Amino acid sequence: MVEYELRLDMIFSSLSDPIRRDILQRVSAREFSVGELVERYEVSFAAISKHLKVLEKAKLVHKRKEGKKQMVRLAPDALRSADEYLEQYRQMWQGRYDKLDMLLNERD
Amino acid sequence: MVEYELRLDMIFSSLSDPIRRDILQRVSAREFSVGELVERYEVSFAAISKHLKVLEKAKLVHKRKEGKKQMVRLAPDALRSADEYLEQYRQMWQGRYDKLDMLLNERD
DNA sequence: GTAACATTTAACCATATGGTTGAATATGAA
DNA sequence: TTCATATTCAACCATATGGTTAAATGTTAC
């Protein structure tokens, strides 16, 4: 359970940075090499390499060697834990709409 | 759009701390005074006060004065933006199951 | 007004984070 | 082997974070 908590720490902390969120979005569409990603931001190669290490540690992305390149893609279970965490709160703001639906349907 | 990004930064960063997640859980059930929350953790009053400021800035909780106490509750739209952010990825891991469903149903 | 309670603010500390540059490593090409 | 390419690692820097204690600020009760 502590491990699950740690995992959530890492996932949410990963998501708190705009560059990392942007990387996730890109690699969710297709594989990118580290260099390809670097081109898209105005920070150094090393900075992106660090961001990728953070994402990897949180298991949000996976890296695969291909020759001298490293290909990055969204990890299979990426973001699922975060979503499951939010699940518990989802009904809190959806509940309101359900009640509204009920009220509207009462007219029938 | 930059503002939305900043908001996400703050929300996810808020969620990356276990104490703050725990506070959210508590105040989602009912209102708590700051002091009541402090009792539940082994850190100082000031530390909890800081955590609450972080949560307030991210608009995840709301504080209301009641005499000399400050009552804390989950903010109305709390966590909704985070959930909407994850929405875009949800189909990526749900899609797989939909496809599996289709395959299974093809036997009919 | 003074005391007691509830909370915040200030000053400080250690560690983490996000960035840099430059050297080191690994792979493929010549 | 040597060169070029792709990436990481190391050292460093500034700022942020999460914690502390102690003083300051409301707010109610006497």
Main β sheet profile of chain A = 3 strands, antiparallel
Assembly state = homodimer
Query: Mean pLDDT across all residues of chain A, rounded?
Result: 89
Number of DSSP E strands of chain A? 3
Task: Detail the topology: elements first, then pairings.
2 copies of one chain form a homodimer.
Chain A: H1 2-15, H2 18-29, E1 32-33, H3 34-39, H4 45-57, E2 61-66, E3 69-74, H5 80-105
Antiparallel strand pairs in A: 1-3, 2-3
Chain A binds a DNA duplex (30 and 30 nucleotides) through residues 13, 17, 19, 33-35, 38, 43-47, 49-51, 53-54, 65, 67-70.
Keywords, separated by commas or semicolons:
homodimer, 108 residues, alpha+beta, Arc Repressor Mutant, subunit A, 3-stranded antiparallel sheet, 66% helix, elongated, DNA-binding
Structure description:
Two copies of one chain form a homodimer. Chain A is an alpha+beta fold and 108 residues long. Chain A has five helices and three strands, in the order ααβααββα. Chain A has a three-stranded antiparallel β-sheet. In chain A, a hairpin with a 2-residue loop joins strand 2 and strand 3 (69-74). Chain A is elongated and about 60 Å long. In chain A, 23% of the residues are buried. The mean pLDDT of chain A is 89. Chain A binds chain B through residues 5, 8-10, 12-13, 15-18, 21, 24-25, 28, 74, 76-80, 82-83, 85-86, 88-90, 92-93, and chain B through 5, 8-10, 12-13, 15-18, 21, 24-25, 28, 74, 76-80, 82-83, 85-86, 88-90, 92-93. The structure holds a DNA duplex (30 and 30 nucleotides).
